[in-house]
Design a protein that fits this description.
single chain; 295 residues; six-stranded mixed beta sheet; 12 strands; 41% helix; 19% strand; globular
Length: 295
């Protein structure tokens, strides 16, 4: 039998702001151990380091020199990291956003597992949800991935709202070029647009433990909507709690969190992860966290 010291070693991590509550380390390290790997997943928190996205070249160089197999990338670096990469996968290039960087043979290769992660979570969590018209809040890196997934999964029209109107319009132009004219539109009147929608997806960081609150007025959470949130810490955001209280069907960010990790694990290790096992582990962590809060 192979001893622990003889098991293959894999060093990975996550670069982003305010990521102390991330469950990625536990997800990756547990799955690595199940597969006989000595996998270590480190958090590289820009808040703790007092750095911004401008430090990405330095951080990527350090990770490469220290032998990292790769790093995940999260807010606010999913688009900012692209100029510092040698190559992009087809998905990352199409989306203009990267959440996984593989470091191999001195090269930095950007991938995006957010798109497939959201799509799989959506298929499982809201399989029969009407998709004629969906409103999406947020047009950043994660928003680009979710928008692509929603249109791929059959959304007829996607209305996108962002505090940066130019960013929303740029994403809309890209989506219409890829999916067809009229498939996406930038929102001018959020209240009026939500009234005609089937569903609502929050792709902003509002609702995270560090950024509590609602990404839109509570009065816009109409009972006929289904509501999804990509935030997963806390798993039940204020948006989902209020939406459920108003009679909306809801989908939390857990599915996307797990399935993007499934894709990243595959890229980092070259091994096929057990998605069911990772889902169970995530659920156990969520239950433990909620229990601790209640206590």
């Amino acid at each position: 039998m192979q001893s622990w010291d003889e098991a293959p070693a894999v060093l990975t991590g996550l670069i982003g702001k305010g990521i102390g509550a991330s469950r990625s380390p536990a997800l990756h390290e547990r799955e690595g151990a199940e597969q006989g790997l000595r996998l270590v997943y480190r958090l590289i928190d820009l808040d703790i380091l007092r750095l911004g996205p401008e430090a990405l070249p330095e951080l990527l160089l350090a990770a490469s020199r220290l032998g990292f197999a790769g790093v995940n990338i999260t807010f606010p670096c999913k688009q900012a990291v692209i100029p510092f990469l040698d190559e992009l996968s087809a998905d990352a290039a199409a989306l203009g956003a990267v959440n996984t960087v593989v470091l191999k043979d001195g090269r930095r290769i950007g991938h995006n597992t957010d798109c497939s992660g959201f799509a799989e979570g959506f298929r499982r969590g809201l399989p029969d949800a009407p998709r004629g018209h969906v409103v999406q809040l947020g047009a950043g890196g994660a928003g680009a991935a979710v928008a692509h997934a929603l249109l791929t999964e059959g959304t007829g029209k996607l209305s996108i709202s962002d505090t940066d109107q130019a960013r929303a319009e740029a994403l809309v132009a890209d989506l219409c070029a890829r999916f067809g004219v009229g498939r996406a539109a930038a929102v001018d009147d959020l209240a009026g647009t939500v009234k005609t929608a089937d569903g609502l997806v929050n792709c902003t960081p509002v609702g995270m433990t560090k950024l509590p609150g609602l990404p839109l007025a509570a009065a816009l959470l109409l009972p006929h909507l289904w509501v999804a949130d990509i935030v997963y810490f806390p798993l039940e955001t204020e948006l989902l709690r209020l939406a459920r209280a108003r009679g909306c069907r809801t989908l939390d960010g857990g599915g996307m969190a797990v399935f993007q990790a499934v894709g990243a694990f595959r890229l980092f290790t070259g091994r096929e992860p057990d998605a069911v096992r990772m889902l169970k582990h995530f659920a156990q962590m969520s239950t433990a966290t909620e229990g601790a809060r209640a206590a």
